[in-house]
């Protein structure tokens, strides 16, 4: 067993061994390191070593080594770094899967390579011998040699990983993922035996998990995440079992799911329960348990209707029709009638298990046939509103088979309905969890039910009927099948009939005292006698009031029943609300507990990591000191043994001799010994050289003599073999001459045959060459025509492109000319408009000048009037706003500069602009008008008379002047 001071040394040693082709030694070295108790503290180097170790195990298909290494590495990583173990296991499964797929692809490539081109030699001799001896084909042998070992190793990988992760609470997701991948492996390659073993392994893991509850890292099934992972694994197991048609294993998977739900006392999600009941319908249908198949469909319908809000009406109708048809397919009589007590007990236990699986709790003291029966199921379907959702054909079929009495026309009316129903079904929408529904599977059972109903109704009407007439009434089966069906019905007491083949008739009814008809007649006769006795001998006591209360008792009982039902529904709602509140409280407490546990675990991990680092550093320092101490003691012991040092033995930590000086002394002693050893070796090598030279000098004449003797022997052997070869050649030549003489008689025939074959082949060759030349000429002519056609098409396309380009250029030129012409017209129009505007402005300036002169004349007259009114008493001067405004307007018009020729001023703004503008200070009054003598009065009186309103005459005069 190899020991390494550091893990890195083991990794380097393994890589060196791998490079020289010694993989087994490299694997053993890494295995010794991993299983060693010296390296039990996790570090990153150990993870790299595990990756290399896993690669070697997969490459050499050593599953036992891989399992041992993973178990040891789990011990190292369990409390420190579980993520590293998860990465190693994922790498292990990835490599195993990749190598298995590679082997499978290589086998397929090898099978394709065996298809040779030569049809006359499609089988090699060794292949024929192997096929006759072993009885296997090439693909079977290649699979057995290449694919099977890797698939075995992959299966062993899955088992190893599941065994390592079976009770690890921190790697539950990896355990579930491995189980799912193992299920997919069994499904992909149709491995039914391995699937059964895998289911048993997972079942045993869960049983051990419940058995040993005191384990340290045991998963907690009460946690929602853990429960969901285990349920997902079981549901995947159920799906794969049904797809592989392993119905017994599927039933055991259903029992596992039910046991897990009972164990944790929590119901899974509705989506998972839909899958659960959908698979139960398949299992019960295959097993022939039609009653439980119908109950499972009823549960599935209730779940879909309650929780699937996206389900459309068509899908709901199909599911409801499946429920009703499944209920109708149940046999109308009890098949356990007349069974023994042991069989009844066994049937009762079986019914209890089945009822628990589909969610019905049955009291074991009661008879389960009374609780779960065909009649109770049909009554429940009617009360729960299932009949209102089914198709019209299914509803009509239900009424015909359960409520109508048509002994002669029942089969003829049922047959078209069954034909229509057989065409219904198919895939449901994506909103449904059920993939597809097929109603045609119920047709044989419904035909059997229709036959039984017809026989039952006919037995109430007829006592005797011909076999031909009865066969015509039942179009589904021949009379032999009808007879078999009727035998089972008579055996279980459903109908009473006999078949007389000698007379060709069927006899209905039974004359015995235990028959139903005789019992009815006796009961009617007893009631009649009781009434007659009451009339002859009337009772002496008074009649009780019970007779008066009986008519209203039914109504009272009905009201009380309704009240109790309402109270029961209220209590159930309260219980559900209370359970929901308790569930919410439990969920909140669980979340708080998980959060607190997570915080505690993180703190614990941090503490453990810090303590681990401290212990690691202390251990490293202690190991260094111990190693130095051991080396010093070893050097001191060697020095004492050689006797190189006399006197008192120095101590390691003495006063004069220290550890460093002792190590230097030992090193110098080793150097001296090495030099002496080298001198001895040189002397020994020189002695060996002389000895070897002497040996060769003595051996050279002996070697020369042996060589000469060998030459003589080989010459004699060569001459002997030459003589034998000549003799054999002479004998062969004589035999060939005799053969030639014997075959010379056929020479002419051979020449004739050769000429005939040559002529025929030459004629065939000439014909083939002529055909080939003709075919080549046709091909050349066809290609010449095609090239001519292509050239024409190219020429036409080019001409068309040239024409389009020319039209485009002409259009562009026309557009440019049109734009240039419009631009010139626009410029001319603009010049004309400017001239018109200039003339208009000139005309307006003339009009304004005239208006200004007129206003000045008016202003002059107004000032004269004001001067005349200055002699009023009290010195007050009335102000005429109408006169002042024209004067101000005239002054503003006189002082305003002429408008700019290039700027157009609207007419409605011209008066405002002239009124706003003030006269420049340097402008003198015009010579025609002297300055008014009352400027001071105007400036002084404007503030006092600003609020005065103009008179009617002044305003009228102003408006007239403006006009």
UniProtKB/TrEMBL annotation:
GO molecular function annotations of the record = mRNA binding; translation initiation factor activity
Q: Where is this region: Disordered?
A: 810-830, 855-963
> Gene Ontology terms, cellular component aspect?
eukaryotic 43S preinitiation complex; eukaryotic 48S preinitiation complex; eukaryotic translation initiation factor 3 complex, eIF3e; eukaryotic translation initiation factor 3 complex, eIF3m; multi-eIF complex
Among InterPro entries, the record links this protein to: EIF3A, eIF3a_PCI_TPR-like, PCI_dom
List, in alphabetical order, the GO biological process terms annotated in this UniProt record.
Answer: formation of cytoplasmic translation initiation complex; translation reinitiation
Q: Where is the composition biased (Low complexity)?
A: 881-897
Q: Where is the composition biased (Polar residues)?
A: 951-963
Please list the coiled coil stretches: 561-642, 667-697
Protein keywords: Coiled coil, Cytoplasm, Initiation factor, Protein biosynthesis, RNA-binding
Which subcellular locations apply to this protein?
Answer: Cytoplasm
Residue ranges constituting the PCI domain according to the UniProt record: 316-513
**Gene3D superfamilies xref list:** 1.25.40.860, UVR domain
Pro residues biased stretches:
918-934
**Pfam families referenced in this protein's UniProt entry, alphabetically:** eIF3a_PCI_TPR-like, PCI
Q: What does this protein do?
A: RNA-binding component of the eukaryotic translation initiation factor 3 (eIF-3) complex, which is involved in protein synthesis of a specialized repertoire of mRNAs and, together with other initiation factors, stimulates binding of mRNA and methionyl-tRNAi to the 40S ribosome. The eIF-3 complex specifically targets and initiates translation of a subset of mRNAs involved in cell proliferation.
What is annotated about its quaternary structure and interactions? Answer: Component of the eukaryotic translation initiation factor 3 (eIF-3) complex.
Which protein family is it in?
Answer: Belongs to the eIF-3 subunit A family.
| The protein, known as | Eukaryotic translation initiation factor 3 subunit A
